[in-house]
Automatic annotation (TrEMBL):
The gene is fbiB. The keyword Cytoplasm does not apply. Residues 7-198 form the Coenzyme F420:L-glutamate ligase-like domain. This is Bifunctional F420 biosynthesis protein FbiB. InterPro entries: F420-0_g-glutamyl_ligase, F420-0_gamma-glut_ligase-dom, F420_FbiB_C, FbiB, Nitroreductase, Nitroreductase-like. Residues 405-426 are annotated as: Disordered. FMN binds at residues 266, 377, 414. The lineage of its organism: Bacteria, Bacillati, Actinomycetota, Actinomycetes, Kitasatosporales.
Length: 426
């Protein structure tokens, strides 16, 4: 591995492949060329005035992952999670900042094709940039663009030196090469290009997947947000889901959500929550059939027509079609009795508020488990029926029912609500 000296200062419109070829890098078929993203950005004209840095970060940001004071860790347009969307003020003239290449994989392909044309060699190209990493101090270079390289070396299905099966080992080859190359390029040595020889078995005749294959998609990303951002998103992204897939619900996920629910505030250091988990189809059907009959009886007493009754009863399908059902209950154990109607009523209201806080915690935690939910109040209108069917103690008050499952579709966008409309300042 060696750095390539003689690369001149790069300006917008320069042909990087020709500049590298002119430096006589000594390339051979099967080599890997490591190119610092900054010279790619300069050649592609990705330079803006430093005064526009915050606006540039905003424009390059897809979502904010974490924020600490002025520092923003964001996902940028290339799918990379990094500080300030990769907008960088180093190694660029004073008063300017650099944006990352618009499509680093395309940049790598263009350099590779240009070197093949200029020098007649078939090499792999990796475009590198400097990252910090969660839970690790210091910076290292990683691959943000690639062409002609197997960026991931999948060893699953093989065995280690002791014959143990490898079931989860996928090596980020492109990132390893990027980090190694920085040992010879350096951050301030004006050596933006390096060559690695001896790893021809990792190169390919075609351009390959590119470095985009290194970006973990949202479904597999267990560390998608910072703590405060995750809390805000969990609260705001909790939505009422009314249709579910047939995919079964992990009972462990529901139990984790219950564990979150019972951290809600409660009066007198009590624990006023109980959660009845209906995990079998038989238990759900038995309860919902009994509730439907009770509802129909109420509607008939109200003088509703049979057509109106049938229409109203269909609203309960959200519970009937869910693969999992939870009945949260309020228990007044530990409550105070005053013998005064006003204070006794206030005491119950305290417990009801605590129960609601527990239900909200439960729904938010389900959203964190990537489960959809719908809280429906129906069990509150036939508590005796629910207690009888489920065999609950008489002091347990069902506080609605929660349908749980995997959403069949994305909910519609939530209408914006201006917080000031709900605030009174005194």
């Amino acid at each position: 591995m060696w750095a390539v000296p003689g690369i001149p200062e790069v300006s917008a419109g320069d042909d990087l492949a020709k500049l590298i070829a002119a430096a006589e890098p000594g390339l051979a078929d099967g080599d890997v060329l490591l190119v610092t993203s900054k010279i790619v950005s300069k050649a592609e004209g990705r330079v803006v005035r430093a005064a526009d840095r915050e606006a540039a970060i905003d424009a390059e940001t897809v979502r904010v992952v974490a924020r600490r004071g002025p520092l923003r860790i964001v996902e940028n347009r290339q799918g990379l999670v990094m500080a300030a969307a990769g907008v960088d003020a180093s190694n660029t003239p004073a008063g300017t900042v650099l944006l990352l290449p618009q499509d680093p994989d395309a940049s790598a392909r263009a350099i590779r094709d240009g070197l093949r044309e200029a020098l007649g060699v078939d090499v792999a190209v990796v475009v590198t940039d400097t990252f910090g990493r969660p839970w690790r101090a210091g910076l290292t270079d990683v691959a943000i663009g690639a062409a002609g390289l197997r960026v991931l070396d999948d060893l699953r299905g093989g065995t280690d030196a002791h014959g143990n099966p490898l079931s989860a080992t996928v090596v980020a080859t492109a990132d390893e090469l990027a980090a190694a190359g920085d040992l010879v390029k350096g951050k301030a040595a004006a050596l933006p290009v390096a060559v690695v020889r001896g790893l021809g078995h990792l190169t390919s005749a075609d351009h390959g997947q590119g470095a985009r294959a290194l970006v973990r998609d949202a479904r597999d990303d267990m560390f998608r947000l910072g703590t405060s951002e995750a809390v805000r998103e969990a609260v705001t992204q909790r939505r009422t889901v009314r249709s579910f897939t047939d995919e079964p619900v992990d009972p462990g996920a529901v139990r984790r959500a219950v564990a979150a629910a019972v951290t809600a505030p409660a009066p007198h250091h009590t624990t006023p929550w109980r959660f009845v988990l209906l995990e079998s189809p038989e238990s759900r059907t038995r309860l919902l059939d009994a509730m439907r009959e009770a509802w129909i009886a109420d509607l008939r007493r109200d003088g509703k027509s049979e057509e109106s009754i049938a229409k109203r009863v269909r609203r309960g399908d959200v519970l009937r079609n869910a693969p999992y059902l939870v009945v949260p209950c309020l228990v007044m154990d530990g409550s105070h009795t005053y013998g005064d109607e006003r204070r006794d009523a206030a005491e119950r209201e305290m417990f009801v508020v605590a129960a609601g806080a527990g239900v909200q915690n439960f729904l938010v935690a389900l959203a964190g488990e990537r489960l959809g939910s719908a809280w429906v109040s129906s069990t509150m209108f036939c508590r005796d029926v629910v207690r009888e069917v489920l065999g609950l103690p008489p002091e347990w008050d069902p506080m609605g029912a929660v349908a749980v499952g995997h959403p069949a579709e994305q909910p519609r966008p939530r209408p914006d609500r201006e917080a000031s409309a709900f605030i009174e300042v005194r």
